[in-house]
Amino acid sequence: MSRTVAIIQARTGSSRLPGKVLLALLGAPMLAHVVERTSRARLVDEVVVATTQLAADDAIAVLAKDAGWALVRGSETDLLDRYVAAARAHAADVVVRITSDCPLIDPELVDDVVRVLATTGADYASNTLEPRTYPRGLDVEAITRAALELASAEDTNPTWREHATPYIYRHPERFRLARVASPEDTSGHRWCVDTLEDFELVHRIYDELGNDRFGWREALMVVRAHPEWADLNRDVIQKSVLPG
C-alpha cells in the first residue's frame, strides 16, 4: 500500500523576514499551524518537518521535539537532497511538498493534489503549475518517490536543487505532470509569508476567524469582506527560481 508523507521545509534564516516560522498566530508559532493544518489531510499518512543542520535552526528542532513532530535535518542549500533524505527516512512512496511560510494551507487542497497524482498516474501533481488559479500560499506539490530520487540523481543545477522541484516540472518530457486547477481564478491573492506585510495580512485573517480550522474559501470570504487588506502586501514582489 502506498505511503504518503508530507514534508514541510522550515528554517529560521529567511532573508526578508528572519525567524518568520516562529512568529505567533493566535498564540502559536506559524510553523505549528502549518504542521497541524497539513496533518488534517486525510490522504497523508505522516507529516515530517525538514530543517537544516545549522545551529540557528536548533529552535525548530526544539519546537518539533516539544510538539512530538517527526524531524529530519539536512543541507541548508540543497533542498532537493533534504527532501530525499526525509523521504528515505520515513519510507515515503509519495512526497507532498509544503513550505512553512503557508499558514493558510488547506488540508482539502492537499488531498485534492494527492488524489490527482494517484488517479492520473502522474509523477508530479501540483496546484502551482502555470497558469496558477489558487492564491499564492496554498501551494501543494505531490511527487512520487521515484521521480524525486531520479531528479536528485540527475539535477546538477545548484539553483534548482535549492528549490527542490524545478528539475521535475521543467522537464515535462521526462516526467508526467498533472495540473490541479480551481474553477475560479483567485491567483491574484497573496497569502504566503515572506515579508512583514505578508504576515500582517495573514495575522488579520487569523484574528478575524479566531481559529485555525478554517478552509481557504473562508479565508477568501474574509479578505473579500475587507478589500483594503489587499493593499498591505500588494507591492511585495515574489521571489522566483532563476532560469538556467
Description:
The chain has 244 residues and is α/β, with parallel strands linked by helices. The chain has a single domain (4-187), classed as Alpha-Beta Complex (Spore Coat Polysaccharide Biosynthesis Protein SpsA, Chain A), CATH 3.90.550. Helix content is 36%, strand content 16%. The protein has nine helices and nine strands. It has helices at residues 30-39, 58-67, 79-89, 107-120, 145-154, 158-162, 166-169, 196-209, 216-225, and strands spanning 4-9, 24-25, 28-29, 46-52, 70-74, 94-99, 124-126, 141-144, 177-179. Strands 5-4-1-6-8-7-9 form a seven-stranded mixed beta sheet, sandwiched between helices. Helix 3 (79-89) packs antiparallel against helix 5 (145-154). It is globular. The protein starts with a strand and ends in a 19-residue tail after the last helix. 41% of the residues are buried. The mean pLDDT is 96.
